[in-house]
Design brief:
- The protein has about 230 residues and is α/β, with parallel strands linked by helices.
- The longest helix is centred in the middle third of the chain and has 17 residues.
Length: about 230
């Protein structure tokens, strides 16, 4: 008996650990067929918005997880209206490609979820949140135990210690954080780059480069490294 085709889905790919784990969970659940990664990047810099990750590393991630990368360019300091217009174009392309669902790695911010649901409702796409409601301390420990390798690429020093920038995420690093810092950084304390994990066919070798302060945030420039 031939099984019916599963709904096709894109996954919003920030390059971070939560996106990588959401892909792993969505694949494990098997309710949809993830067929692409959707990434917004800042066009003048060729880097993932907020995470500051080089596009060449995001392309390496896409190759490692075996999925095509759908890139949405936006300018620096992008106005909300333009951002939503660019995303609407991407969602129209998704519909043309037969995509009916979009998955996100969001954890518990209700306003963010409501915004995504409202935007997708306009284009008749169904949102998915594979990680929603999970305890974030237990979740990040599960990730690390499963072999997720993540590097901190951006820190908001008003919310978390600036020394995190450029560090590899470890249990010891998380245990040393102040208690008010969410262990998955869901309040925007920091952003990460996932270099390995169950979703990856092979790890991506990286090395931390220069650390700079820009627009009130601390960025660590990850570079490709020899395996």
């Amino acid at each position: 008996m031939i099984e019916p085709a599963r709904p096709r889905a894109w996954l919003a790919w920030s390059s971070g650990k939560d996106s990588a784990w959401a892909l792993h969970e969505a694949r494990r659940a098997g309710a949809v067929d993830i067929v692409g990664l959707l990434t917004t990047y800042t066009e003048p810099h060729d880097r993932v918005s907020m995470h500051g990750v080089r596009l060449e590393l995001v392309r390496a991630q896409a190759a490692a997880v075996g999925l095509p990368l759908v890139l949405v360019p936006i300018p620096a300091l992008c106005p909300d209206q333009l951002y939503e217009a660019r995303m609407a174009e991407a969602m129209a392309a998704a519909r043309t490609a037969g995509v009916t669902h979009v998955a996100f790695g969001d954890l518990f911010l209700a306003d963010v979820r409501a915004y995504r649901e409202a935007q997708l409702a306009k284009v008749d796409l169904t949102p998915m949140f594979p990680l929603w409601g999970r305890d974030t301390t237990a979740l990040v420990n599960e990730m690390l135990a499963a072999g997720v390798e993540a590097w901190v690429t951006c820190v908001d020093p008003r919310r978390a210690p600036a020394r995190l920038a450029g560090q590899r995420l470890t249990t010891a690093l998380l245990d040393a954080l102040p208690p008010e810092v969410d262990r998955c950084f869901e309040h925007g304390e920091a952003h990460t780059f996932a270099a390995a994990g169950p979703a990856f066919a092979h790890p991506i070798a990286v090395r931390p480069g220069v650390i700079v302060e820009r627009d009130g945030f601390i960025f660590a420039d990850l570079r490709p490294a020899a395996p």
